[in-house]
Each structure stands twice: as C-alpha cells, then as structure tokens.
Structure to design on (380 residues):
C-alpha cells in the first residue's frame, strides 16, 4: 500500500555537478549543484537550478555563460566544500586547491582537475520559486584522456561520478545492460 | 590532457522516470524519460523534456497534469518497453501488464506497481529545440510502504531505482556518506 508524504522534493539520486563562473571582477568561482539535468538533445542543453542568493546566480546573469564540471568521487572533499561556502566570502579555488582555467569558448572558468567539462552558453532563464532555472547550450565537451573510452567518449566506470540523494552521496553502480533490449520480451516490432 | 568531443549530450547517469498521462479520450498512457531532474525546492518541482512527436507531449498540453512514476529495477522489461513504443499506436498498459490508477489530485494516471509516485500539475513550458521542457509542481508524493524508511520517506536501497547513461541502464551504487561532512576537512565554519 502507498502512503502520501506530501509535497516534497523526491529523494531521488540527482547529479553532482560543479558550476564554474566568473564574477564581475573576473574572479573565478565554483559551486556544487544537484537540481540539474539534461533537457534537450538538439541543441544539446542542460538545466541547472540555483537560488537567487548564490554568488553563481549573479555571475551567470552578468556573463551569460558557465561551465559544468563533472567530478570524480576522489574529489569528494573538494566537491562537498564547494557546496558549503559562498564565493562571495571566500576564494574557493584557494580554499580547495583546485585550478581554474579559462574556457576557450565561453566567458567562464573550468576546473582543471575534473575529468569532464561542458562549455555552456546561457540560453534561457525560468523563475520557478526559491530556485531559478538556467538552461545552458553545450558548445563543447572536453574529456580527460584517461577517462575516455576507445571512441573518446566519457567512460563512466573510469570517471566514477557521484550521485546525491537525501543529503547523502552515492556511488554509481554497475551496468545492467543496453536500453531497448530488455523490452523486446514484451514487444517485438514487426 | 583533455580532448574536445564537440557539442554533445554528456554521457552522464540520468534518471529513469515513467510519465503517466491521459489522452483526450481518457485512455491512460505511460512513457519512459531520462532528460529530467529536480528543478525547485519551493514549490517542489521537477522538469521533464519531451519531443513534440511523443503522444505524452499532447496529453500534457491538454490535461495540464502528469505523474512521475519512479520504478524499481525489477521492472526493467516494462520500463524499457514503455520507451520503445508510442501510446498513439499501442495500449502500453495492456502490453506490459502494468496497472493504471487515477490520481486523486491531478488529471493523470499513476502506475500501481511502481514504488514512488509524484502527482504533478503543469507549471511552465519551455521550447528549447528538439525537446520541450515541462515543469511540474509536485502536489504529493506517495511511497509504497515496503520502500519507505522509518520516517516514511523513500528508501533508495529498497526502491533500487535505475539510472541511464549512453543508452545503458545502471544500478545505483552504495552510500558513501552525508553531504556537508567531507568538506569540513577543508573548511571549518567559525
């Protein structure tokens, strides 16, 4: 039997992404987000949600750009720390020892140590409530060579991305199998 | 060293959610989506992206409501099948043997067999490109009793949700630990 628990945020594994931006003075900032996801295949685009009070919020509005940095779980201390403090008060790169590098394509820094980087141009803004959603068009993806498969694509088993749910971090588990194979037991196209 | 792979959709683990809707005639439909995520804490809201060609797209526009059904991996055949065929041509509930139940709160059906159900009212629509993003306000969450923790909240280790990346399904891995604990090694608030 199902029980109602009211209008809440589902305790579902969400991504752990780090957003790179420049402030008005050109100082790099980085912030961990989880209210985020892929939102379009063509143009390739992702959506991230931020509270208006964050430093990153103002940075994206001014610079119209950001990077999405997909971290490996070995940086869990740094990732966690980037979600604990505001760039308004602290130089988060100095604090964590991570290295900002200017993107060649957009007006935002990326994090050298993280294996997958998305250069994003601001496409759309939706005010929802406590959070504002920013949609970014992906102009390029960069992948660290030792985290790429034979075709150069991100290899999740090498990247070891984090997931977040109910204020805990989770590992990604093993592969089960390919999409559009399991359903053939129930439906065989003619 | 990092290598560019161009403007693509990142091969990142994405959620596997099933969207429940009614068509104009009142027939229930269900569709698997992965371009999706949480987008606001207050009001609690989620975003899902659909191609305009899907049957679900028209259903949401007409009914202004949908359910998000978070499945357990034991239903992988049914979940996969719901992403392979269109409700325009096939009664997907008859095909899979899943059971549609009318939501008490919104004009949409949910799937009886799935452990976590979100009743969503359409809040906003963004045309992005190939995909259109629908933002739904969560009016209630229902959780199957054997998938709830002692506080009634969804227990991910019981639910066993699926993740999707690079057209493969993944298990969720084990818990690593609580957020805002790892970062304390780098930053101690005064």
């Amino acid at each position: 039997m199902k029980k109602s628990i009211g209008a809440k945020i589902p305790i579902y594994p969400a991504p752990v992404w780090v957003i790179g931006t420049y402030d008005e003075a050109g100082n790099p900032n980085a912030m961990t987000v989880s209210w985020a996801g892929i939102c379009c295949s063509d143009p390739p685009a992702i959506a991230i949600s931020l509270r208006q009070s964050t430093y990153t919020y103002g940075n994206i509005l001014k610079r119209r750009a950001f990077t999405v940095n997909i971290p490996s779980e070995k940086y869990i201390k740094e990732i966690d720390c980037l979600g604990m403090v505001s760039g308004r008060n602290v130089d988060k790169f100095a604090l964590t020892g991570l290295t900002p590098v200017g993107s060649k394509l957009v007006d935002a820094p990326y994090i050298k140590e993280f294996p997958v980087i998305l250069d994003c141009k601001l496409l759309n803004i939706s005010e929802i409530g406590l959070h504002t959603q920013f949609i970014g068009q992906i102009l390029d993806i960069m992948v660290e060579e030792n985290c790429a498969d034979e075709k150069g694509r991100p290899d999740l088993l090498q990247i070891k991305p984090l997931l977040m749910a109910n204020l805990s971090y989770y590992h990604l588990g093993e592969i089960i199998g390919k999409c559009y194979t399991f359903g053939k037991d129930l439906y065989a196209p003619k």
